């Protein structure tokens, strides 16, 4: 059973930075795709960024140029470097994984989820 544990959230002022970490375990073959989603209170969970096993990355327009997703397969760890944070980035951030091929932006394609880590950005 794949397990994902996020860490690194916190409270920062607008313009600040945070790095989220997702530690993955419980699989034999490295997940084909891992990514980050976020959910603000009263809103749907939305896709933020994904990275596949070949190094391909994709970002939501709202975070492009500010966030960077990376993955260390040797450490079974996924990262999200978040710079130039804005108040609208405030949300619970979730790590997600799928073992099958290809990355998708829809959350229903991901069977494995972490418990989330809170990011709060104040103006």
List the helices and strands and how they pair.
Elements: E1 3-7, E2 10-13, E3 18-25, E4 33-39, E5 46-52, E6 57-59, E7 67-72, E8 77-82, E9 91-98, E10 112-113, E11 117-122
Parallel strand pairs: 2-11
Antiparallel strand pairs: 1-3, 3-8, 4-5, 4-9, 5-6, 7-8, 9-10, 9-11
Question: Can you give a write-up of this model?
Answer:
Strand 7 and strand 8 form a beta hairpin. This protein has 123 residues and is mainly beta. It has strands at 3-7, 10-13, 18-25, 33-39, 46-52, 57-59, 67-72, 77-82, 91-98, 112-113, 117-122. Strands 2, 4, 5, 6, 9, 10 and 11 form a seven-stranded mixed beta sheet that branches. Helices cover 0% and strands 50% of the residues.
